[in-house]
Write a structure and sequence with these properties.
Structural class: alpha/beta
CATH topology: 2,3-Dihydroxybiphenyl 1,2-Dioxygenase, domain 1
Number of domains: 1
Radius of gyration: 15 Å
Largest sheet: 9 strands, mixed
CATH class: Alpha Beta
CATH architecture: Roll
CATH superfamily: 2,3-Dihydroxybiphenyl 1,2-Dioxygenase, domain 1
Number of helices: 5
Strand order of the largest sheet: 2-3-4-1-5-8-7-6-9
Number of strands: 9
Length: 153
């Protein structure tokens, strides 16, 4: 398994509109469609990477994270399980499948930083990672627009 790059950085914000305007004005960011996660979010594109703005009720500066793309999620999942690094608290579960089929694995590093590991495929159906996943479409209603969201560009 090898990471192929960072695909996004999540920034907690006190006001989504204000933060979106800042990144659009400062960096020329482009607003993207996002899935419904049950919390206010906005996805922006800056080049080939995304900025995910997450409204934080504590006023910003909260639990940010970064997303890493891997080519094979199964060995990362197994290793994270062995290291007891899976984080079920951050998003109600540690392994989610987005409407576009991308898998999101949430882990904590030794300093308690949240890391999101993403892959287009979690392995063959029936694999441990595949059977342990939850579908975002089952947890949160998705509009037609939400269903067009793409995490990995």
């Amino acid at each position: 398994m090898a990471a192929t790059g960072i695909n996004h950085v999540t920034i907690p914000t006190r006001d989504l509109g204000e933060s979106e305007r800042f990144y659009v004005d400062l960096l020329g960011a482009e607003r993207l469609v996002s899935p419904n996660f049950g919390a206010p979010v906005r996805w922006l594109r800056v080049g080939g990477v995304q900025i995910h703005l997450l409204e934080d009720s504590r006023g910003g500066g909260g639990p940010g994270h970064f997303g890493v793309t891997v080519d094979d999620l199964a060995p990362v999942y197994e290793r994270a399980r062995a290291l007891d690094a899976l984080d079920p608290a951050a998003n109600g579960h540690y392994l989610w499948e987005l409407p576009d089929g991308v898998m999101q694995l949430y882990v904590r590093d030794p300093s308690d930083n949240l890391v999101e590991v993403n892959a287009r495929d979690a392995g063959a159906p029936g694999g441990v990672a595949h059977t342990d996943r939850r579908l975002l479409v089952d947890a949160q209603p998705q509009s037609e627009e939400n269903l067009r969201a793409r995490l990995l560009m």
